[in-house]
Each structure stands twice: as structure tokens, then as C-alpha cells.
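Predicting holo structure, magnesium ion bound.
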Amino acid sequence: MANWTRRGFLGSLSAGAAATSFAAQQRLTQPEKRTGNGSIKITDLRCAIIGRNPVVRIVTDQGISGYGQAESTKAYLRPMVLFYKDYILGEDPTDVEKVLLKIRRLGAFKPWGSAVSAIEIALWDIAGQVAGVPVYKLLGGKIRDRVRAYNGGVRFPMTGQTPQDYAENTARMKESKEGFTLIKQAVGFHNPAMMHAMPNGWYDEPRTGTSHADRGLMTERGLDHVIACVEAMKKVTGKDIGLALDCGPGWTVKDAITFARAVEPLHITWLEDLITGDYTPYPNADLFREVTQSTSIPIHTGEQIYLRQNFKDLIEKQAVNVIGPDPEDVGGIAELKWIAEYADIHGILVAPHGIFDGLIGLAAHVHLAAALPQNYIAFEYPVGQPDWWYEIVDGLPNPIVKRGFIDVWDRPGLGVTFHVQAAKSHLADEDRHFFD
Ligand SMILES: [Mg+2]
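Done. C-alpha cells:
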């Protein structure tokens, strides 16, 4: 056997080695590939609620940690994250897919895919640090040096529910220092304040107590009011800034078509989640397709959907024009990349959801967006909540957004780190060992 090593692969061929010896030959002539200073193993999985965002930390035996984050609306997530701990301890975190094979099946539509998604992002953070490259390199490399973000998270309180109030609110968003080129506003059943403020807007009682609980057939008065608010907002954004509308869920197919056709002259960038969305635990591809085929306005959905398989119908039936998976709900950034590629070959665009994804999530969005194909529009910009989040994270550009874009950075992994001492002062007592 020692002779094989000295002769090398070509020598073995000339000696007439059987093809079945190839694997053994490889082992003899090429040392086992190791990462960093040696093999790396996951030694712990932790979750702390920092501010309003659950933060996931994967600890390794090589002094490298990876971080991921879940939406700021999910402060209850800790036990769901820790549920996966025993599945991933001892695994090599740089074999991201192998780790995910163990846990991906144990997730579901929003919010139950969040923990798997945050773990996936933390694994890529580690893999990038071990390889010494930014995460976008591991997703296929960047095709753009700056990524467009849409607004999103920079919001101002409403002063009322008239078209004039919506115009004024949109003007403030337009004037924000980030200079967004695309603004999203909430209308219809996605906006209970708008709907509940008008008498007899639709044929059901206003409902509260869970997110986006209203649905039903709109009255003529209700539909007219929504359209008037949209017209007022579009007057403000003009032709240079796109206006997208988060609309539902809860519209009937016919109301959705009537509404979409009414706003066609306004060139709305997309209409989001008219039929299903947010916390709806299924996509309704056939109904979306009926709306999509009936209007020239792009129809959008997908923020609550978990995994590529659940986008299959929407994409293959071309049921929508734009999909908006959230990396913190869909199963992570590589999962979203795969879905975006599959959408692209079906002529469907991608605008990832992200309003509540926090600053670690923002970093994940930037690396992902750098590597997405040319069907990419923009991702939804998250903000740090509360404001002190900007003081505990290092590595983000300052300012983060310039004229609606974010420059892609090149530090290894996600390229953002915690100021541990500063961050520790914001930890709840039960999370006090999170950074130890
Ligand atoms: Mg939405």
C-alpha cells in the first residue's frame, strides 16, 4: 500500500489498478480534508430573547459561534429552538445540509419554521467563518455589489384613516433618510385600522384577537375607500418611487380582481397576499392564479410558507408573479436561494419578506440578496427593535442604507458580531449565560 502512495494516482493507472481501487487510492494520496484547525463539532445550541428578537447561537468546539435570528414578533420561540438541540449536537456545522436533514422535517408554516430557519442561518455563519469567506460566496457568489431594500420597517404612526392621512404617512416614508426606491403600505384586510374605521366596509363583523382576522365580501363603499387611499398614496410616491401594497389575506377572488383592475392605471408594484398570507397555513395556488390571470398588476404571496415543496404549486402553476419568502420562516437562506432559482425559470420574481427580521436577519438578507438571480426585486428592510440593537451589533455599514441600497460587505460569515459586554446588559436573567 505504501508503494501506491509514492506512485500516486497516475502511477497506479499505469500499474493496471482496478477501477474499484480508486476510492482507496484517493484516501491514500489525498489527506482527509479538514476544516480550520481540525474537525469542528457543534457543542451547544442556545436561544436568548434580545429586545424583541429571538437570537440563536450555535457554539462549536473550535471557538467559533454562529448566530441566527427570528422575527421580533416571536418572543415565545425559545423552547422551539431548544427542541432541536439534541438533533444537532456533535454534528459538523459546516455540513449545513447534513445538519438540516435531521431537523428540516420537524418544522412547518409560520411560525413553526422559524427555529429551523434561524439554525440554518447560524450554520452558514459558522461555515463562512471556517472557510474565511462571506456567506454570499457559499451561496454561489455575488452578482451585485449593492442590494436594493424596500421600506419595510421604517414606519411612522398614522394620524387617521382618511386618504389624506395615508398620503401624509407615505410622504414621511418617502422622506426617510434611507432614500428607499420602493415603499410598501398596508391596505384592505391587512390593515384592520383602515377597515374598522369605516362603517359597513364589508359583509362581516370586525374581528380582533388574532392577526389579520377579517375577511369577506367588500361593499362598494369599502372598496371605494381602499382605492381612494391607494390613489392618495400613489400621488405622493409619483413615478420615481414604487408603491407596493400588502392587502390581505381575506379578499374574495372577485373583489381582488376588481381592486387590481381599479389600480392598474397607478402601476402598483405588487399586490401582496390578497387571498392567503401571513399566518395562513397553506397557499391557495388555484385562487391566486385566477386573480393573477385577470390583471396586469403583479400579484405577490409567500411570506408564511415553509420549504421549497410548498412553493411548487404556486410556481409551476404560475399562480403569482412575485414570491416573497422570508428567510427566517422558509427554512433559511439556502432554501430561499433554491426557491428563487426555481421561480426564475418560471418567469416569477422574488422580493423576500423581512420587516421583523432584526439586524442579524438584515445581514442574512444582504448576503442572500447579493447571490440571488436577476429575478430579484428587493428585500423588505428590517430595523433594530429597540433602538439599542444598533449599539450591540458591529459590522453593519453606517449609514446602512444609501439611496435605497446597501453595499455588500466582505467579512467572513455573516460579517456581524456582538459587542458582548453591551449586549449582556440587555439580557434577561434567564439568558445571562448566552454569550459565555
Ligand atoms: Mg405581508
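The chain has two domains: 42-133, 138-413.
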